[in-house]
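Reading a protein record of the kind used here takes little practice once its layout is understood. The fold follows as a row of integers, each naming the local backbone shape at the matching residue. With these conventions in mind, the following record can be read line by line:

_____
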Amino acid sequence: MKSLFNSHNIMMTGICLLLSLVLLIMSTMGSSAQSTSQRLNAIEKQLNAIQRRVFTPGTRFRSGDNGGGNNAAPADIPVGSEGALMAEINIRISELETQIRQMTGQLEEANFKVTNLTRKLETLEKDNEFRFKELESGARPMASLPSTGAGSALPAATAAPVASTAKQKYDQAYSLVSNANYVEAEISFLEFLEQYPQDELSGNAQYWLGQTYYARGNYADATRTFLEGMSKYPESSKAPAYLLKVGMSLNLLGEKTEACEVFRELGARFPNSIESTRLRPTEERKAGCS
């Protein structure tokens, strides 16, 4: 009987470990589907029922030592019932192990899918930003930009020839912003706008000037620059981009209500633009627009 009790203790330890695993999975999958939560609750109820049955007062599993050394079975427990109970416990443990393995596999698969989806979204966001910049630049091929040697941008004063036309000046400034040299690009675009305020490229230059602020997290100056673009160059092809970036900058400044109003204005004034049809819905969700 003592060996039987020891076996029972081992099995109960196993049950407790399994219950711990179940609880761990429940805590990890706190946002999982309701059906999974119901299955775990059912498993816990089964374990509790087994424990109550095992530790029912009066059974021969009540204690490892009853003091008097009398290990005889009570009259209400038929001979051989221990074996049947142990068999049932083994079956239950096997079922629980199977269910836990299944749920663990589902959790691992879900985590894998979430990780892959996150990576894809990050890649897609970067790709869209690149394509968006290309579209905003008027599909200007990179080959038309001044060469900077080994692939890294050098200061315009030392690496690029002195620009003699508005387009050359614009291309030099654009090459700087394309290579993330935002401080130098800011200076170049400011000089361009001072020298050529009414040039056909001035609307583009105003937008990329705002981008130099936006890329550095200076959202207040970015908002001001994009709004100036709408005021000075309302007929520019960059007009939808001005409004989009004003909304995005306001959202990042915490002015979500104003940002949503700007996004609605973008949809009303330029409903067929790429900024409105493709980019605005995502930015509205970020700002929590209703």
Q: What stands out?
A: The longest helix spans residues 81-136.
